[in-house]
Amino acid sequence: MPADVALLGPAEIRALAARAGVRPTKTLGQNFVLDAGTVRKIVRQADVRPGERVVEVGPGLGSLTLGLIEAGADVVAVEIDPVLARLLPSTVAAHVPGLTVAATDEDAERREVRLTDADGRDRLTVLTADALTVTTLPGPEPTALVANLPYNVSVPVLLTFLERFGTLERALVMVQAEVADRLAAPPGSRTYGVPSAKVAWYAAARRTATVGRAVFWPAPNVDSALVRLDRRDPPTTTVTRGEVFAVVDAAFAQRRKTLRSALAQLAGAPAAAEAALRAAGVDPQVRGEQLDVAAFARIAEQLSAAGRPLPHRPGTVAP
């Protein structure tokens, strides 16, 4: 059942940060949410269910963490900042009646702290680690990702988690408004690009709400937005995801080029690229922004069939 939780307010957030000596840093993309209404909107749009295992990346001072626990979720929070990671368990324990620290596990790579309720249920697990290097999560596999993602790594983190944790049924993330548009962009739109095509491999994405700057501390220089992603099956194909992503990266490396030119190096020559495109049912004179991820998969199949070795890209955006 949902817990009796007191969410954080602006004065308490600033007081917590001051006591811990924490100053939000642009290096880690830290902008803390001050508004409880925004927290509850995120949780509501994520359709968080009581008893559900939810992973949160970048919990910061715990505003969204408490909102997730209030909705009844069991949270595993991944925090790269060791000061914030050590502060979070005590903050949550002070705001959620009946939680106690059950265990603290440390090794050379990461630190885990678990808070349990009176029934022994893990309500919060704090993992001190870089989200981009995490390959396993403690406890049951999560079914949802809900996070205020750091602006500077939002797309790589999202794609990494969709790739590594197949149990994720959906995600609700807050990102920079411009990034939200890219994630949810359909083929043919001005903002469609590498993030759009790669996210579409895993999920259907849509922008659900704009979030103003005033709900953050410090206030960022740009607006934010919420993006909802619902997992779906990838295109049916005989090649790997990594091979498809290699074609996506090449197609957008110089987005003003036609696909015949953009894929020439990958195919070995412009003529070979044209042959593969025609075999895939794609006009060689169009640009990458016109294609959906299924079309990129067909192109990868034709290049593979022609004997072209394709690099295996991971699920993140290209450098």
Automatic annotation (TrEMBL):
Residues 38-233 form the Ribosomal RNA adenine methylase transferase N-terminal domain. S-adenosyl-L-methionine binds at N31, V33, G58, E79, D130, N148. InterPro entries: KsgA/Erm, rRNA_Ade_diMease-like_C, rRNA_Ade_Mease_Trfase_CS, rRNA_Ade_methylase_Trfase_N, rRNA_adenine_dimethylase, SAM-dependent_MTases_sf. One of its GO terms (cellular component) is cytosol. Its EC number is 2.1.1.182. GO terms for molecular function: 16S rRNA (adenine(1518)-N(6)/adenine(1519)-N(6))-dimethyltransferase activity; RNA binding. It catalyses: adenosine(1518)/adenosine(1519) in 16S rRNA + 4 S-adenosyl-L-methionine = N(6)-dimethyladenosine(1518)/N(6)-dimethyladenosine(1519) in 16S rRNA + 4 S-adenosyl-L-homocysteine + 4 H(+). It is an enzyme of class 2 (transferase). Keywords: Cytoplasm, Methyltransferase, RNA-binding, rRNA processing, S-adenosyl-L-methionine, Transferase. Specifically dimethylates two adjacent adenosines (A1518 and A1519) in the loop of a conserved hairpin near the 3'-end of 16S rRNA in the 30S particle. May play a critical role in biogenesis of 30S subunits. Belongs to the class I-like SAM-binding methyltransferase superfamily. rRNA adenine N(6)-methyltransferase family. RsmA subfamily. This is Ribosomal RNA small subunit methyltransferase A.
